[in-house]
C-alpha cells in the first residue's frame, strides 16, 4: 500500500470518526442547529461525498455547495468553530492551498479537545504533501507522546514508520513492532504493520 493510499484511508477514517462527533452534537438539541452546527455537519458530509464521488458534474455541484457552506463562517458559534476549521482545512488541502490549511489546523490545535488531536494528524499529512517530511515527523511524534486515544496514536505510529522506512528500515521495523502491541480493535493497522515487518525483513 502506497503512502497516498494510506492518506486516503486515513481521510475516510477521519470522516467516519467525525460522524461519531455529529451524533454527540445532535444530542444537544435545538441549540446545535441555532449555533451553526447544522452548517458544519453539512460541510463535513459534502466533503466526504466530494472525496468519494467520481462523476465530474456531480463533483462540481458538491464543490459549489462546499464553497457556499464555507462562506457562512460568521454564522458558526465558537462552540463549533474547531470542527468548521478542521473541515475547511481539509477543503484547502484538497485545493493544494497548504499554507492556508496549516493556519486553520493551528487554530484547531490551540482550541484543544478531540478536534485538536485530529488536527495534529491532518497537519502532519499536509506537511508530507508539501515535502516537509521532518516537520511531519515532529508533528507525529508530538501526537504519539500526548494523545490518550489509541486509534490516533497507532495511526501516527504508522505514518512515522512509513516516513522512517525510507532512510532507516531497522528503525521502521521497531516502530511497526510497537503497532502490533495495540489491542485487537486496531487490527487494520496491526495487519499492515505485520505485513510491513515481513516485507522489510525479507529485503
Automatic annotation (TrEMBL):
Q: Which UniProt keywords apply?
A: Membrane, Transmembrane, Transmembrane helix
Transmembrane segments in this chain: where? Answer: 6-25
Q: Does the keyword Transmembrane helix apply?
A: yes
Q: Does the keyword Membrane apply?
A: yes
InterPro entries per the record?
TPR-like_helical_dom_sf
For this entry, the protein name equals Tetratricopeptide repeat-containing protein
Q: To which species is this protein native?
A: Borreliella japonica (Borrelia japonica)
